[in-house]
Write a structure and sequence with these properties.
Number of domains: 2
Number of strands: 10
CATH class of the largest domain: Mainly Beta
Strand content: 35-45%
CATH superfamily of the largest domain: Invasion associated locus B (IalB) protein
Largest sheet: 10 strands, antiparallel
Oligomer: single chain
CATH topology of the largest domain: Immunoglobulin-like
CATH architecture of the largest domain: Sandwich
Distance between the termini: 28 Å
Strand order of the largest sheet: 1-2-3-4-5-8-7-6-9-10
Structural class: alpha+beta
Shape: globular
Length: 211
């Protein structure tokens, strides 16, 4: 997961004032019109940047989790993701990833976003593509939208997301179909523990999916 941390440029105003060609003139005028006791106090020392914690990773069966944590100085932002790799019927590798942040709407009011990444030009593109997730014990109808770089994002309606996550917990392998085109059969070995780990890391209950 790509990490991006934007640090503020502390002390920029002080640097500009020091480098200004009018700084010497201003100091000279102050020396002739005011006592030395009224000169400006020294600039404050630069503020230290908050420490950056390394990502935390764990493996559960075929699933891996990563928790990316950034301390802004005011709060701690966490992005929690679980991912598994798979091969499609043509032998092309892909990934299924769930991701959520502790700044998002959390379960049971909202659920992790689901993204399938796969380099397969035969799969449908566009918006609101019919999709089916499940196994021989039950299937869940949903819709996905094609994004950039071979990614399909499931439209994250609360009821549908919960139903798909429950199917993932139940299934030994999750069959995924986009518009009657088979995507892959994806192993769910380790999914339950990985999902519980997401909840523990990003602070949301998991009993409605993985009791």
């Amino acid at each position: 997961m790509t990490r991006t941390l934007c640090l503020a440029a502390f002390g920029a105003l002080a640097a500009l004032l020091t480098a200004s060609p009018f700084a010497g003139v201003a100091r000279a005028q102050t020396a002739t019109t005011a006592p030395l006791a009224e000169t400006a106090p020294p600039a404050s020392p630069p503020v230290a940047s908050p420490p950056v914690a390394p990502p935390k990773t764990e493996t559960f069966g075929r699933w891996s989790t990563i928790v990316d944590e950034i301390n802004t100085g005011e709060d701690v932002r966490k992005t929690c993701a679980a991912s598994t790799a798979f091969l499609d019927p043509n032998g092309t590798s892909g990934t299924l990833t769930l991701a959520i942040s502790n700044g998002d709407v959390l379960p049971p009011n909202g659920y992790p976003g689901l993204v399938i990444a796969l380099r397969n030009k035969d799969l449908p593109t566009g918006e609101n593509i019919p999709a089916v997730f499940g196994d021989d014990k039950g299937k869940v109808k949903a819709t996905v939208s094609a994004g950039a770089d071979g990614q399909w994002i499931m439209n994250n309606k609360t009821e549908t997301s919960l139903a798909v996550l429950r199917a993932m917990r139940r299934a030994g392998a999750l069959d995924v179909v986009f518009a009657n085109k088979a995507v892959a059969s994806i192993s769910m070995d380790g999914f339950t523990k990985a999902y519980r780990s997401l909840g523990a890391s990003c602070g949301f209950p998991t009993t409605d999916v993985a009791p």
